[in-house]
Amino acid sequence: MRLARRLRAEREPDGLALGRVSVLDRLERDGPATASALAAAERITPQSMARIVRYLAGAGLIERDQDPSDHRAAILRITEEGRELALCDRRQRDAWLSRAMAAHLTEVERDVLLLAARLMDRLAAA
Description:
With about 130 residues, the chain is α+β, with helices and mostly antiparallel strands.
C-alpha cells in the first residue's frame, strides 16, 4: 500500500483522477469493453462508472460504439489521445520506480522483486 501511494504521488498533480486513468489503462491493456464490464472489473458501481465514462467520452479519450450483440449497450474503446495520456501517466510512474530501484536496491534485490512481481500477478489473476 505504501508503494502504491508513493507511485500515485508521482503522478502529475493536475492530471486525470486516478479512477479515470485506471479505466483508460484497462481499456488500453484489455481492449474494448462495456461500461458494466468495466464497473465490475474496477469494482465500482455502475453509476460511478457512468460518470467516469461521460467524462472520458466528453474529453475525447474514449469512444462509444454500438454493441452488435445488444443494441441497447455500447462498447467503449480508447482513442489515440486516451492511449497517449494513459501511456504518459504510466511512463512517469515507471521512470520514478526505475530510478528508485537503481538507487536503493542491489541487483539481487531487483531480481527478487521481479520474481515477487510475477508471483503477485499470478495471485491477482487467480
